């Protein structure tokens, strides 16, 4: 079905079948505060996985509940990281969350095209258009995720806009909720001030501790942070510096 | 700071109508009604109105939340003037005034009376530590509020402490209820989320805990704009039961146009013995009583108690801990600035729960004005006038309903309308005219 579409559909390349970025241009910035109009599941059990992973969830009513999404790329952009992770972790379900409509469409098309041209692969990855700053608990249960990614988030330079940053002391409460104890949060940016901000938020949060350098070296995923995404590649081309903060979700030790 | 979408809507509703609120001292030593910026207290133990003492002249704008502490030792009020005021209930002297950055929507007092938490219109929850306040010395203290948690950019409608004090529960306009561990030192923040109770399909307007001596941990009930009341095992985010109160009250009128919203639940009050939950619903003249079985973990509709002889739609309800009476008030702050006294109407229902020794009997009845504790002097003090005309209330009820809807229900614009609204945005500096 998709081959037929790509012949008559100018938005996709004729040779690879992959969508062309120039037909999915969008501003880099989107307002996370506006009340948008995409459907949000009332609770994680209402999140329809048959739409995203038909290979794993063929029928809507029959779901054994054993397979759950474990990786979430927050602000996944054009999907570079997810595509790399998909083949690196073929038995893990992963999802990208993106606020911009056009960009989400691009990623959807990209995944569909990859599934067609590589049968059996890329069935474990999908994307959803949503505001993860407001609705993360609607998609994931407590302790469901084992990895969360925040790659090159919007810096929101002005001090008055700092509260719009996707990593903040209060939002970390929610990310800690959906991350399993032992789960890892990966952040990277090319903006030094933002890098310091994210590191300081994570340091100050009682449910996160920094992952040691030794572990970072051994983690296959860490290298992907700067190389797998379009944003990361752009930074490398321009010889820019990147600032990484990788932390582990720990159990609570606060008396209560 | 005034640059986001929500603030744009709120500016238009600067003079929003605020509902009248009622709170009862845990041992029914006094009853307080707030209406507009006015706080009215009637002392039942000596049968007279109390005079409030505040060097700063009380509240300057609509009061949005009032509460007695668990022992009744102090009372807190807060609202649109961005002030949280603490009152000593013996002298009714305001001993502390905390400034909030934004308008306050709700407040709660920890059971040990050490902390007061309040929430604002931007989803931020703050804590005020009053452990060191000396009740013997009647001096004033200066306190600062510290932020402890937030619901990202969502109006928090209510907050409550769990009966065992372990958790603080916050409900918001985005259909969510969050249960967070309340630490021993909350000034460092409340970072550990225990659960989210998700299931409502509209804004959550009110929450209350139902507990008894046998079930100290209790269960949570929540009321919503989706016209249901839900029962939750809050620590494990399990939805136990749902009561479709709007439909049952016979209020869903299919003759009305599609734009008609289902009646929202406006307030909840649990009886102290854990057997009943009183529900106030928009457009319902009276109260719906739900029967709660804590051991079976069920909630079901028991009956509707109608108030005869007048159209009384409560805007707020409350009860003491020791006496099985449900107090209700109906009223609203004025739409226009007038000098005349704002009027509220107070009614009482008996049989709300049981006295400790007597067996549970749900023989509820609406008390006549002469039968209520405090009698006519109480009504004079709290209502503003002894007998209130019907016309005064019909507009008030509608105004409160509209205000709640405008505040809490997201406007659904069509795609074309959204494009038109976007063009009107004034935050683009170098945009060429369309």
TrEMBL record, chain A:
Q: Which reaction does it catalyse?
A: guanosine(46) in tRNA + S-adenosyl-L-methionine = N(7)-methylguanosine(46) in tRNA + S-adenosyl-L-homocysteine
Compartments reported by the entry = Nucleus
Q: Which family does it belong to?
A: Belongs to the class I-like SAM-binding methyltransferase superfamily. TrmB family.
* Organism the protein comes from: Rehmannia glutinosa (Chinese foxglove)
Spell out the protein name for this chain. tRNA (guanine-N(7)-)-methyltransferase
The alphabetized UniProt keywords are:
Methyltransferase, Nucleus, RNA-binding, S-adenosyl-L-methionine, Transferase, tRNA processing, tRNA-binding
Catalytic residues in the record:
154
Q: Where does S-adenosyl-L-methionine bind?
A: 75, 98-99, 131-132, 151, 229-231
Chain residue ranges for the region called Disordered: 1-20
Q: What is its EC number?
A: 2.1.1.33
**What top-level class of enzyme does the UniProt entry assign?**
transferase
Please give the InterPro entries that the UniProt record associates with this protein.
SAM-dependent_MTases_sf, Trm8_euk, tRNA_(Gua-N-7)_MeTrfase_Trmb
Biased composition range(s): Polar residues: 7-16
What does this protein do, in the record's words? Catalyzes the formation of N(7)-methylguanine at position 46 (m7G46) in tRNA.
The pathway to which it is assigned is:
tRNA modification; N(7)-methylguanine-tRNA biosynthesis
From TrEMBL, chain B:
Which locations, inside or outside the cell, does it occupy?
Nucleus
Which keywords describe this protein according to UniProt? Nucleus, Repeat, tRNA processing, WD repeat
Superkingdom of the organism of origin: Eukaryota
**Alphabetical list of Pfam families matching this protein:** WD40
* Membrane-spanning ranges: none
Checking SUPFAM superfamilies in the record gives: WD40 repeat-like
Q: Which InterPro entries match?
A: Trm82, WD40/YVTN_repeat-like_dom_sf, WD40_repeat_dom_sf, WD40_rpt
Repeat positions for WD: 56-91, 197-242
Pathway, according to UniProt? tRNA modification; N(7)-methylguanine-tRNA biosynthesis
The family classification in the record reads: Belongs to the WD repeat TRM82 family.
| Cited PANTHER family | TRNA (GUANINE-N(7)-)-METHYLTRANSFERASE NON-CATALYTIC SUBUNIT WDR4 (PTHR16288:SF0), WD40 REPEAT PROTEIN 4 (PTHR16288)
- Describe the protein's quaternary organization and the partners it interacts with: Forms a heterodimer with the catalytic subunit.
Q: What does this protein do?
A: Required for the formation of N(7)-methylguanine at position 46 (m7G46) in tRNA. In the complex, it is required to stabilize and induce conformational changes of the catalytic subunit.
Q: What is this protein called?
A: tRNA (guanine-N(7)-)-methyltransferase non-catalytic subunit
